[in-house]
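Database export, one record per block. Field names are fixed; values are copied verbatim from the stored entry.
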Amino acid sequence: MQHENFLRENNARHFWHPMAHPAEMLETPPMIISKAENVEVHNIDGQVMLDAVGGLWNVNLGYSCEPIKKAIHDQLHQMPYCNTFRGITNDKAIELSYKLKEWFHADGMEKVFFTQGGSDSIDTAMRLVRQYWKVKGKIDKIKFISLSKGYHGTHYGGASLCGDPRFRRNYEPGVPGIFHIPAPYTYRNPFDESNPEELTKKCIQSLEALISSQGADTIAAFVMEPIIGSGGVIVPHESFMQKVRKICDDNEILLIADEVICAFGRTGEWTGSRLWGVKPDIMTIAKALTGGYFPMGATLMSEEISETIEKNNNALGMLGHGYTNSGNPVGAAAAIAALDETNKLNLASNAKTRGSELLMGFNQLKNKHRTIGDVRGKGLMAAIELVEDPETKKPASKDVVAKIYKTICDEGVLVRASGNNFIISPSLIITKDHVQKIVSAIDKGFSII
């Protein structure tokens, strides 16, 4: 009890929590999680909850994946660290690079640069894109375009790409030369267009107009999540990414697919790009790469980009970029084990099946509760948008969201509240019974309003 009292007394007093106001965390201290196993988490009050957030989109294999734990344990004893800067490498990084090349070959990816997480991967992609165009002699191609609801991490480059002002406003000015077009978000968009196919046309027209006004010869890349994650789980029409790919090809613009959330099966396909039948020029990965057991990410690139830089004969080809833990052997060992388990359990197939069940349940709840304005999802990534009134679409108040959230937790399910959305992204190993428990708990949460 003395230990628990210490935790309660010091909760939020000495470190700031990401994506939260420090004063709010002091006033309402966050839930303290002290144990996790299988697909459940335990707090210090003894409450056990099914984790419908999957850590933070990353614990695809649950919290009790023994092969990953063993791989980390064994590697810690063998060699806990080895840098991969010029002239040095390690066996696990080499093995992982080979496995990733094989895994993402269908997406057209040929080479890998290891990072420490998703934000690193995005900034790496931005730097490599600018370097590529310099090597090609097209030094004016420095600008980036992204989507208005897209989320691309918290480093200065990635945060500047973020379309949602929640992630940009307090830190502006950001990186210059970044522009946004409307996201294919049927529930809320500047065109008041609810038809997904028609909305796609309008968004594409906005992209074409922006390219025309800026000049294609100044634009380096278009950056997008195949399915927008933290921005509210926005699933585009199936033609959207394909149309973006064509416009990029027609205007000599690279396409960066931010797969930090989508990769490794969450969408019901092994990558979000593959889901839509598109091969990007660069892909960024992280999160489920190690199942959440070790912080690690990577930036993957096509043969065209890798060969262009590799064949350069001057200083422009030099990679003046890297991280202390690029290719960390412990992280690489964890990733190798996670990939093997992900493939063995065919998690993409389970995500597709369970995701369909989940979305069906949420649509039934939408017909039952007026506070639910919209439900969206694909595979095991879904969102429920809360409103005061379905006619006006006015977002639900913070207090209403908090009350419903607490009730859902009390019913034994942990979800993530983001603005007026509940984000659902459970581990990809969940069963049909787990889906029913999630839907039932959310149903009871909305029943209190």
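Remark 1: The chain has a mean pLDDT of 96.
Remark 2: The longest helix spans residues 347-368.
End of record.
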